[in-house]
Amino acid sequence: MTKIKIGIIGAGRIGKIHADNLLRHPNVELVAVSDLFAGPELEAWAAARGIGILTKDSSELIRNPLIDAVFICSSTDTHVPLIRQAAEAGKHIFCEKPISMSIDETEKALEAVKQAGVKLQIGFNRRFDHNFKRVREHVAGGAIGEPHIVKITSRDPSPPPRDYIKVSGGLFMDMAIHDFDMARFVSGSEVTEVYAQGGVLVDPVFAEYDDVDTAIITLKFASGALGVIDNSRKAAYGYDQRVEVFGSKGSVSIANDHPSTAVVSTESGIVSDKPLHFFLERYMQAYADEVQHFVDSLVSGAPPAIDGEDGLQAERIALAAKLSYKLNRAVKLSELNELRREPAAK
Question: In the CATH scheme, what is the homologous superfamily, with its name and number, of domain 127-278+313-339?
């Protein structure tokens, strides 16, 4: 079959991960990579992989008539204009989360995708994780009955650097947005109300950017179920990613992945491996599987399972969480349009 020709915009850490996964795919040709800061190091990286075109100009990549689809892996503030340009050029789109920091801007991007009739998949890679997929399968299959409580723990092994913190959009939009998507995914229900509390307990640098590094977020779902998410920017023992869904007939839960399941028991204590250290180790296969899903959707013509609407809904929950924290009260998602216009919500 004719290979699908793809270009990548943004060759940072995640762009390179996607590039390597695409290069291993038999039905894909990685035609071009663009990065605003392309230099000798990136030139060597591209040459080693046989990538024929490396440019600083993303519009050059988007205009390339050979390219069928683009991966947008650049900074969040570039996502909306790039989505709109790619859609207008008739390119299918894979975009990293979040689509933007603004609901209005995200809606503009989704409208451009709709008008162009192209596919858009959002990079919520955790939906492809072997553990989370099994939770969703058990819940959807009715094994635990009607979900009553969803509990998500998501803690990073160490906080990001200052340069990242100041442009990240904050814990709710940057880190917890994966958990908001996961809450929708594993429960099978939409979130209707959010109450968020947060603090700066890890590093005072977060306060400098009006951010928090520790949070507890409670959720209400349309189904009537309740949820709780706990986030921390620093877990001394490693990457902590756990989920439990408790229902009318039982529960399903997942623990952390470890380098091994070996447990050493002696008179001095019981010792096992710490969790895998960070998202690259934990979710490497999930990154490969989400790329496979996107390529499969292009080949089959079927819509991606994780589309722009999923990106929008996760952003709406994140915005509600940010507003809840600022207003010190629960926020219904139905209030968002009104609250976004209030000075106190800025």
Answer: Dihydrodipicolinate Reductase; domain 2 (3.30.360.10)
Please state, as a whole number, how many other Cβ atoms lie within 10 Å of the Cβ of residue 179.
Answer: 27
Range(s) of the chain covered by CATH 3.40.50.720: 4-118
**Percentage of the chain surpassing pLDDT 70?**
97
Q: How far is CA 204 from CA 162, 208, 231, in A?
A: 11, 7, 17
Q: CA distances (Å), 293 to each of 16, 32, 96, 128, in order?
A: 18, 21, 14, 9
Q: How far apart are the first and last CA of the chain?
A: 52
Provide CB contacts within 8 A for 28, sequence distance 6+.
Answer: 3, 4, 5, 6, 22, 295
Q: Quick: pLDDT tens for 21-36.
A: 999 999 999 999 999 9
Distances 159 to 14, 80, 205, 233, 239 between C-alpha atoms, Å: 18, 27, 10, 5, 11
Q: What angle do CA 133, 134, 139 make, to 5 degrees?
A: 100
Closest CA to 144 of 216, 3, 251: 251
Mean pLDDT of 99-118: 97
Q: Which CATH superfamily, name and number, covers 4-118?
A: NAD(P)-binding Rossmann-like Domain (3.40.50.720)
One-letter amino acid at 227 equals G
